[in-house]
Amino acid sequence: MIIPESEMFRHVRERAGTGFWEGWPDCDTLTEMAKGLTNSRGRQILFVDDEGRDYESRIYLKGEIQTRKNSCHDLFNALVWMTFPKAKACLNSIHFHEMAKEAGHRGKARDIATHFDESGVIVATSDEALSAKLQNFEWHSLFWENRRKVLEEMRFFMFGHGLLEKALSPFMGLTGNGLVFPVEKQFFSRSLNAQLAILDESFEIRYSKIEKTRDFSPVPLLGYPGWMTENSEEAFYLNESYFRKGRRSGMGRF
């Protein structure tokens, strides 16, 4: 499994330790990599290759994450657990407790959790004006007119393992569900590991403000400066089929 050198994958490459493995890491290898990580009940995280039902319940009750062999989707899920363990444990806890209330009908809280778990993007920024531009779909102003400022005071971290899988073959249309995290300006001078730890620690409080899936902000990922060669030209941001006009302001306000 090759993890691309693109900056889009830098945070999960950091957790993987290398850019690639010879072959695929098995569940024992992944469990060793996750040593010391726990679910919300303090159970050690274990990756297991036997498939079955009760996926979320098994994680919550036993710490066991069912992981298919040679699956990009499941491998990225494992790497996100290693990158944002508290955030993943939070979402798993939501699934477990909401399932007990549902009486056979999947509820809104689980839909929201699934949206972010599969396609979420953590947007860290120290500039309220940049946050407002993202929330208001002002893509040309955000990514082109404020290009330098975005590089200095805004970062995207792909959280959704489904989104990471799609990004292996990036295409015009690649979009995530963004959740803005206000940070101090000094955040961007910290190491990548320190940045990830700060975001993971603050996830539960920030996520708790989401009440519906439309509270997430669409994030056209290929617009981030340098994440695609073509976005070095202004014309790239004039493609309105990708950089769509907005519908409303969202939850990313400071």
List keywords for this structure.
single chain; 254 residues; alpha/beta; disordered C terminus
What distance separates the N and C termini? 39 Å
Instruction: Give unreliable regions as ranges.
Output: 249-254
Report the principal-axis shape.
globular
The helix count comes to 11
Largest sheet: 4 strands, mixed
The side-by-side strand order for the widest beta sheet comes to: 4-3-5-6
Overall description:
The protein is α/β, with parallel strands linked by helices and 254 residues long. It has a domain at 115-238. It has helices spanning 10-16, 27-33, 55-62, 72-83, 85-102, 108-119, 128-135, 139-145, 147-153, 161-166, 192-207, and strands at 46-48, 64-66, 120-125, 154-158, 175-182, 217-220. The strands form 2 sheets. Strands 4-3-5-6 form a 4-stranded mixed β-sheet, sandwiched between helices. Helix 3 links the parallel strand 1 and strand 2. Helix 1 (10-16) crosses helix 4 and helix 4 crosses helix 5. The longest helix has 18 residues, at 85-102. The radius of gyration is 18 Å and the shape is globular. The N and C termini lie far apart (39 Å). Residues 249-254 have low confidence and may be disordered.
List the helices and strands and how they pair.
Elements lengths: L9 H7 L10 H7 L12 E3 L6 H8 L1 E3 L5 H12 L1 H18 L5 H12 E6 L2 H8 L3 H7 L1 H7 E5 L2 H6 L8 E8 L9 H16 L9 E4 L34
Helix pairs in contact: 1-4, 3-5, 4-5, 5-6, 5-11
